[in-house]
Structures are given as structure tokens and as C-alpha cells.
Amino acid sequence: MKKLLSLILAAIMVCTVLASCSTLAKGDKGAIITMYLAEEIYDYDPAKGFNDLATAKIVSLMFEGLTTLDKDGDWHKGMMEDYEYFKPSEKNDNYRLQISLRDTKWSDGRTVQANDFVYAWKRIMEPTFKCEAAALLYDLVNAREIKMGDATVDDLGVYAVDTYTLEIEFVNNIDVDEFFKKCASLALVPLREDKVNNNEDWAKRASSMVTNGPFDVRKIDYGKQIRLERSAYYYRDTDSNQHLDKYVIPYRLVVRYDYGNGKATTEQQIEKFNDGTIFYLGEIALSARGDYEKKAKIKDSAITTTLYFNLENELFADAKVRKALSLALDREAIADMLVFAKAATGFVPYNVDAAGNKGDFRKTADKKAELLSTDADVAAAKKLLSEAGVSGGSFAITTRSNEVDVAVANAVADAWKALGFNVTVKQPGTELIPAKDNMSAIYDDLYQIAYDEGDFDVILVEYNMLAPNAFSALAPFATKFSGNGVDMYSDNYSVIGHVTGYANDKYDELIEKAYAAKKDSEEMDALHEAEELLLSDMPIIPVVFQQEAYMTSKVLSGVGNTYWGRNFKKTKMDDYMKHKESIQAELAENEAEVVD
């Protein structure tokens, strides 16, 4: 018996030692992993960028919310240590959620506090701050009134009880699981008030950003690279002897762009992956996708590539015209061209929950009837145009400059030209803002500016789900759920609706019904009806459901999947010191930079 006990104790000690072992070579900080992760982005503000897959892929490595989502959209604890959901009394008190936070620090060493969540959440609820994710917080006391300009942001039902305790007050009894899924949205991560308020371009420069996630942005060389480094403060007790890679194994992720001249994935990046210079390929060149279809790892994304109309353009005033333009598209052919995509049969993509996590919303919707034809019907399109009295017209499709979006825009333009329209594809690109006042140069994303200001005829959007539920996808098309607040300069503080200009009282009623539903079945029925109405009115044209495809070098292990991208916290590189030497030489040769 004593012998058995000794063996058990010895095994426990070995496990403990192994669990605390470092992967680092003596005196070294860890592996440097060069990669092509996603197209270049120009603003790292987590409350923006829901029309861009690349932003989610990169920003999700930098920030962490109360919860995180796995690849299936199930929530796990992030910064939340524990929680209690309760009703203080049976009188008039509202339901409350009290959350205790884990002890961690920002990348500059300051403690992440409950107040950082309070600030971030109040920021997106300001009536003048445009953010589609605002509706994620509409269950909070006074949230809707604040966004509509009828209450001040200080009245929002979220409070810092103390440094590590966050309390949230709700207008109704909520589904806690569903709320915690929302809390994983990038829009709801904490932010530092002292950083955000003191610099309007805080999210465009490495020097002005601090992060609470596993990686921090240390250097941005536009057109060349983004350098992410392990945050030494991410849940790590810096006062003890905890090793540097206890929570995050790689030391540095170098996201390369110079091989592709600052643009989206090219054949050059595949060449560098194949010769071992790049170890992770987050996108595969369009021209090479057929060759790598069986080699790549593929998963459904939370992205619907969608065309938004500007309904103030008289050419698109008649829904028959918009429907005709939709009917002219061969979605199957476009999906086949992209390889890693599926023809859209609705707006909400796969891997998005129906109400109360009752199955996949898209699958349940498609069982009733596919809302969109996946094949082109040019004859029907021409008939609708004839009924609308439209025989042509000139307009532009605005798109980002990455090769996938440009390819989709060109395919759409060709289909519409065949109907008699004069269609051009417009790529706004970026504008250099020169360095001044000891601040580095930055770029303004002219595509994002055009989107925000509604300065487009038709714009191609990579619509990224705000949360893994259908309500968050469909709600922003309802006027009071758009997240755009109110026009503070109008005489009557008019509500600003969706960027397309779409407004339908019936649609608004359906979203209100879904929001107020007591039963999951009622919510799901209202959302299915809302999607059907949206695609009948057709202020938008869903084209394809995007899939993510990526390739990982054989020397890497532990690359994890999340709902919005990859997780590199536990990624290991075999014999990393040997690779590090060649990476140093490569970076020194191509960038005149020696990496320590």
C-alpha cells in the first residue's frame, strides 16, 4: 500500500513538473513564426471592422473579452473568473449579473479593471458612435434609450463594483448562455480610456495601442509586416518566477506582406510557404486554390460576402431592379471560382445559432425554402427590369482591393453588364497621412470611410457575424437596432438607420418581436420571417458564404481554431532555434532588420 501511494505521489510530482516546464531554450524568449495571416488592415479598433474578415483574424489575437468562442461558437471563460446571476428582491429590482474578473494586465503592465469594460461598453452606446454591435447590449438597463439620445451614457446598466468586479443590470430576465456568447464579440472587449480618448488615431499606431490579449502589436510597417509579440503580462504573475511561455508559447508572430507587395495572398506567398520561409498561410492565392483544395484545412466561416445598395440612388429605388440584379447572379459559379465558398441561399451563413441555440439557423431556414436562387435566371431578371421600366444605367461597385473581393466584384459587374448596365469596379485603396508631431505615418482606409459615410452606389461587404446568433445578424437592418444612433444636428434628433438607407416598418416590427420573444420558437419564427422580408425587399444581395482555408507547416503544432480565426497561444515550432536563425537572416536580408 505504501509502495502504491509512493508511486501515485511520484506520478503527481512528475505531472506537476511537466505542467510547469518551459518550451524555451535556455536564455531565449521563444519561437519567431513568420506567416501570412490575412490582408493588411489599417485600423485595429475592435469596435469597428465588421465588414472585413482580416480585422477579426488579427484583432482577435490582441484583445480578450469576458468570454471566448470556440470554432463551433460555444462560449468559454475568457477574462471572467466566475459569475452570479440573481434578482436582488421580488419587488421592482432588475435582474443582475455579477462577474468577477481574472487577474491580468494590459501589455504596458497596468491591471485590467472592471472599469475598462464599463468604458468600452459605454463608448459604443454613445448616440454619436456608429457601431452595429450596439444591439448586443440592448438587454442592459437604459441601453436603447441611450442609443436613441433619450438618456445619458452614465445611465447604462453596467458598473464597476471594485477593481475586479463587474455588475450588469438587465431590463428583463435573460438567457445567460446567450448573453455570454455575445460577450465574446470583439466589440465588447475592454479598452483603456486614457489611450482611446487622448488620440483619435490610437488604433492605427503600435506606439499608442495597449492590448489585454495574448499578443501585443509591437511594430507596423505598412506594406511590409505587422509584428505581434507575446504579452508578458497576459495572466502571468510577473512577481514570481513563472516562465515567459506559461500562457503564450510563441514569442513573436511576423505577419508578412512584402512578398505580395502589400496586397492579398499571391503565388509568392505560397512559394515562400513551400520553401519554408513562411510557416502559416492564412489565405491561399485564388489562382492556386484548385491545386491546394485537398491539402488545406477548411472550415465554414461566419462571413457572408454581400452587396449593399445605396437606396438613395434613384436607379435602385424600385425593389424590382434590385431583385433583377440578384437574379442575374450565378452564385454557384462564383463559389466555384473562389473554391473555398458556398453559394449563398440566404443572408445568415452556416454555423450561426437559431434562437436559444436550437440548431443551425441556415439549415432550419433552408428546410423551409431557399430564399435565393444559386443559379442565374437572366430571363426573369430582364422581365423584372422591363416591368420596372429600367433598361440600363451607370454605377460603380466599391470593393476592398484584396483579390477575392475584386474577383467577386468583377464577376458581378460582368453579369450586370449583360443586362445592359454600365458597371465599373472601384477600389478606393488608402490615403497616406504623413508623420507629424513625433508621430509615425498612418493610412486612412478609404473603403471604410466610403462605407461609413454611405458614399457608394453598391458596395461589396464581407459581413462578419457580430455574435454566433441570427438575431445579431438581422437586427442591424431594423432602424432602431442599426447601432448608428441619432442625428444630433437635426431638429428632432432623427434616428439614423442602416447604412443602405433601408427602412421597413414591418421589418422593424419583426425584429422588435424577436427581441421581446419569451419563447425560442417565437424568436426563431420572427427571425426567419425577417430574413425572408429582407431578401424580398432586397436592399442587400448575399452572394456567397465564405469558408476559411489555411495551411500549417509540418514544424508547427497546436494551431487552434476559434469562431473568428486562429489561436496561436499554444503553437509550438519543432527545433525552433534552428528555424530562428534562418528567419533572422531572411528578415535581415529583406527588411534590413535583425530580429533578436
Q: What quaternary form is this?
A: single chain
Shape verdict? globular
Low-pLDDT residue spans:
7-19, 260-265
Strand % is: 15-25%
Cα-atom radius of gyration:
25 Å
Protein structure class:
alpha+beta
Average residue-wise pLDDT: 91
Which percent bin holds the helix content? 25-40%
Largest sheet: 11 strands, mixed
Task: Explain how this protein is built.
- With 596 residues, the protein is an alpha+beta fold.
- Helix content is 30%, strand content 20%.
- It contains 18 helices and 23 strands.
- α9 runs antiparallel to α12 (378-388).
- The longest helix is centred in the N-terminal third of the chain and has 19 residues, at 2-20.
Features:
596 residues; eleven-stranded mixed beta sheet; four-stranded antiparallel beta sheet
